[in-house]
Design goal:
heterodimer, A: alpha/beta, 5-stranded mixed beta sheet, B: 224 residues, 8 strands, binds zinc ion
């Protein structure tokens, strides 16, 4: 804690299907209100961008009011506003960007447009145990919208993208395999549930981009499309032979393949870069096996594992506020008023300027 | 004093006053840059008008119809600005503003001058993307100079306009490629609605189309 008053920042997050409004004072979490449109996407088996964007527009104002009430502060008391300007779904991002600009102007507050992925890393500064975010760290960010591996040397100045998915996000693979097994959306918790009694070694599903020839070019990249197809083929073949599908074994083996490839690559990055820390972020962190395997592998490799609480791992506005507060604390200038939503904003752009 | 915002076509922002008229108006015709320009337009309009957020009595949002992604930017901005300024956010149909502006001009007066009755029909037609247009039919202005809706708003293919407009098929139509929505007209219409104690529209955007149900493939990879 410094003697100077820490900045009070409100963060707006609308990059996917969660409308998140968070409020922080420096590195202290004051409010984290999340309104999800997940239920509306359930019957489609995945996030429908237009449905998500419509839901953001309706959820924004109630979420703003709820967050301010939870934090017990007024708009006038805020020092700054932060908003996700990318990456994410363009139409969804634009709702947050339009609202953030107008709110900042109405309240006369500086506005910071920040990177969603770096926000996931920033969430770690809000831990209740008060422990500092130690840098450098490797960050593995896995959700239905992204699968990225970062090397973070400085939260606002030095973030490097090591790799990302070249096709589906890991969370999407969970949704698709769940659907294949007749399980509802979202797939992650369902797969987790039915995998409980299954044998993770029953079926050896492929680990994407782990063969030597792929590693040369895609050492830290991920691919889950082949895995999804392999599961589909295996299940179809079993069905065509008239046999029962061992759902628990398929789910456990699939989940093992995902967790294995995620952590193999993340720990390879820790070793290659000489970084003894791994930070997890994104909704897939909710997956029990991913967390368990991360703990095992990190312990074996002597790597410190950091996992923010789940409410700060899934998409939320508090992480955006936290990153905004970091920028304010360092005396950064606000973003200009003419930034747009950038669905492919690179992680090297922590703040749109 | 009202801040009016419409992004159902281009991006248009105005500060208007019942007595003072249009204090400032800013419009960008580009139909793909709403999120980029909306902040600067609001900022410039307020500065030029010399109006602080606390001077406003309301914010008015053009509720469409219009292409969804852009339309939402203006509505989100209007709602958030109203929230931040602690004033109500009201909704007015975007086609209403077009009809108000065009019919007032036909009556020989600007939107800033209160007017009376005009029996002169008009069909407002705007682009709805995907080879469709949005239309609404107006029979003229009532005794208070406010546009009177006869049919719509609804979507149709341009080739089916005659059939879709029915009784109003022979009425003059606006050109969808040249029909801009002016926030100044939207704001002045809102002032007249206030003045005459008329009801405002529902807050919900006028989408007129169900969402496509194709789930997202997620954001594209950032590199390679
Ligand atoms: Zn995320």
């Amino acid at each position: 804690m410094t003697a100077t008053r820490e900045p009070l920042v409100l963060g707006i997050e609308t990059s996917c299907d969660e409308t998140g409004i968070g409020i922080v004072r420096g590195r202290t979490l004051l409010a984290n209100v999340i309104s999800s449109s997940m239920d509306e996407h359930a019957r489609y088996g995945g996030v429908v961008p237009e449905v998500a964007a419509r839901a953001h527009l309706e959820a924004l104002e109630p979420a703003l009011a709820a967050a301010l009430a939870e934090a017990d502060v007024t708009v006038a008391e805020l020092d700054a506003i932060a908003v996700t300007s990318g990456p994410g779904l363009a139409g969804a991002l634009m709702v947050g960007v339009g609202a953030a600009k107008a709110l900042a102007l109405a309240a006369g507050k500086p506005l910071y447009a920040v990177n969603h992925l770096v926000g996931h890393v920033g969430a770690d500064v809000l831990r209740e145990d008060g422990s500092e975010l130690e840098l450098p760290t490797i960050a593995l960010l896995v959700s239905g919208g992204h699968t990225s591996l970062l090397h973070v040397r400085d939260l606002v100045d030095d973030v490097e993208l090591l790799g990302e998915t070249i096709d589906d996000a890991a969370g999407e693979a969970f949704d698709k395999v769940a659907r294949l097994l007749g399980l509802p959306y979202p797939g992650g918790p369902q797969i987790d549930r039915v995998a409980e009694g299954g044998d993770p070694r029953a079926i050896r599903f492929p680990r994407g981009l782990t063969l030597p020839k792929d590693l040369a070019k895609h050492r830290y990249d991920f691919s889950f499309s082949g895995l999804k197809t392999a599961v589909a083929r295996w299940v179809e073949q079993r069905r065509s032979e008239g046999g029962a599908v061992p759902v628990a074994d398929v789910a456990a083996s699939f989940r093992e393949a995902v967790a294995d490839v995620l952590l193999t690559k993340a720990l390879a990055a820790c070793a290659d870069r000489g970084v003894p820390r791994l930070l997890l972020g994104g909704g897939v962190v909710a997956n029990a096996r991913v967390r368990q395997l991360a703990a095992e592998r990190c312990a074996a490799a002597g790597v410190e594992l950091r996992v923010p609480p789940l409410s700060l791992c899934t998409d939320n506005g508090a992480m955006i506020a936290a990153l905004g507060a970091e920028l304010v604390s360092r005396g950064r200038a606000p973003s200009p008023l003419d930034f747009g939503a950038d669905s492919t904003l690179p992680v090297t752009t922590v703040q749109a300027v | 004093m009202i801040l009016a915002i419409d992004t159902s076509a281009g991006s248009s922002v105005a500060v208007v006053d019942r007595d003072g008229g249009v204090l400032a108006a800013r419009t960008v015709a580009d139909t793909r840059r709403h999120a980029e320009v909306i902040g600067s337009l609001i900022d410039e309009a307020l500065r030029e008008a010399g109006v602080a957020p606390s001077d406003l009595s309301a914010v008015v949002a053009g509720r469409g119809p219009g292409p969804f992604t852009g339309l939402r930017v203006g509505i989100a901005a209007a709602r958030a600005f109203a929230f931040g300024a602690g004033v109500p956010c009201l909704s007015v149909g975007s086609h209403d503003a077009v009809a108000f502006e065009r019919l007032s001009a036909e009556a020989g007066r600007p939107v800033t001058t209160a007017g009376g009755r005009l029996d002169s029909p008009l069909v407002v037609v705007t682009d709805a993307r995907r080879r469709e247009v949005a239309f609404s039919a107006w029979s003229g202005l009532d005794d208070d100079g406010l546009p009177v809706l006869a049919a719509g708003p609804a979507l149709t293919k341009p080739a089916d306009l005659d059939e879709a407009t029915g009784a109003s098929s022979s009425w003059p139509r606006t050109d969808p490629d040249a029909t801009a929505v002016s926030a100044a007209a939207l704001g002045m219409l809102a002032e007249r609605l206030f003045e005459h104690g008329r009801a405002f529209a529902e807050a919900e955007p006028l989408y007129l189309r169900e969402p496509d149900v194709t789930p997202s493939a997620g954001p594209k990879p950032v590199t390679r």
